[in-house]
Amino acid sequence: MAPGWPVVLTDGDVRLRPLRRRDGNAWMALRAQNTAWLEPWDATSPVPVRGPRPSFGEFVRSLNRQARSGAALPFAVDHQGRLVGQLTVAGITYGSLRSASIGYWVSRHVAGRGIIPTAVAMASDHCFGALGLHRVEVNIRPENGPSLRVVEKLGFRDEGVRERYLHIGDEWCDHRTFALTVEELPPGGLLARWRARR
Which pTM does this prediction carry? Predict the structure, then answer.
């Protein structure tokens, strides 16, 4: 089980919290309103998925199982008390690696306001502190300018291109990997540095 799950992290108007079944209507409306904005970056299955898509409730239950097992931290992203996106710490691994990756999306109507950099900084600090991880990475399509700005603002180190890393749409797409290790954290953590730079 992830230490202390469920976890709620807050900084000013930005809050990370577990996704709830009652978020279903707001979550689905956001995804529908942002289809063109998000679809070019959304991971897909290279194998055709048969049968009905899971309900939102089943989706939330699956995320909670991952959180309870310690494999992931699936957060809703709230801004000023309203759901505006999602952030997931995935692939949490201990042992000699002690690493995880962070993925996220945010509604276009609030993009560029510092919400996702704040959320990534809070989640990263939690990973390094409460979870005791050594490394956190973010993988981004080279064409995804808004996401590239997030890791640039936070000072993640560019580790280069992973060729054909993730399936999106109908093809395997290259991604650039950005990472931080605990040794690279500034005094006070990533969130403190981000606040000072804003």
Answer: 0.95
